[in-house]
Design goal:
Layout: E1 8-9, E2 18-19, E3 23-24, E4 31-32, H1 72-82, E5 98-99, E6 108-109, H2 143-156, H3 167-180
Helix pairs in contact: 2-3
Length: 181
């Protein structure tokens, strides 16, 4: 051997290849060949120091800040034990919020089903103009005309806070009356 000090052996236990252009891992500071330089390839135990990712709490879905050098699993576990805002009673969220405007119908749908003629929100059973006795006049209103009607209905109607029903329900109810009656 002419140059015995030239190059270094790969630190991977299964490799030990003599590499003339060795690479140093920036996390564990060991020397590796080109085949084992990534954190995954040499199973780097210090990769958490350099592999910067923001973990998210699996319960409350909030990002958890982790400082360099801290183990993300430990920080998330500590958050879940102390600071987590997860409330199991809040877990069940209302999905069916779009109430049918057909008189006498109490069904609620997950998605809005808006009539093309009167622009009222209806359930699947009453979504067609013939099923909800539509009085939209047979032709569709333009988007600008619909927006003007909405602004007029919002300014004409100001609900009082004494009633238990939400103002949104009254607004939708009056929109339906304005459009269809």
């Amino acid at each position: 051997m002419e140059f015995p000090d030239l190059g270094k052996h790969c630190s991977e236990k299964t490799c030990k290849q003599l590499d003339f252009l060795p690479l140093k891992c920036d996390a564990c500071k060991e020397v590796f060949c080109k085949d084992h330089i990534t954190y995954e390839q040499h199973k780097c135990t210090s990769s958490y120091k350099k592999d910067v990712q923001v973990p998210v709490c699996p319960l409350c879905n909030t990002p958890i800040p982790v400082r360099r050098g801290e183990m993300p699993d430990i920080v998330v576990g500590a958050h879940m034990d102390r600071d987590c805002k997860y409330d199991p009673t809040q877990q069940k969220q209302r999905i069916f919020t779009n109430k049918c405007l057909k008189e006498g119908c109490k069904r609620k749908e997950m998605m809005k089903l808006v009539c093309n003629q009167c622009h009222g929100n209806f359930c699947i059973k009453h979504r067609h103009p013939l099923d909800h006795d539509c009085k939209g006049g047979g032709r569709s209103i333009s988007k600008a005309g619909y927006a003007a009607i909405m602004r007029a209905s919002e300014s004409n109607f100001r609900p009082t806070g004494s009633n238990k029903r939400s103002s949104n329900w009254y607004l939708q109810h009056n929109r339906y009356k304005l459009k269809c009656g």
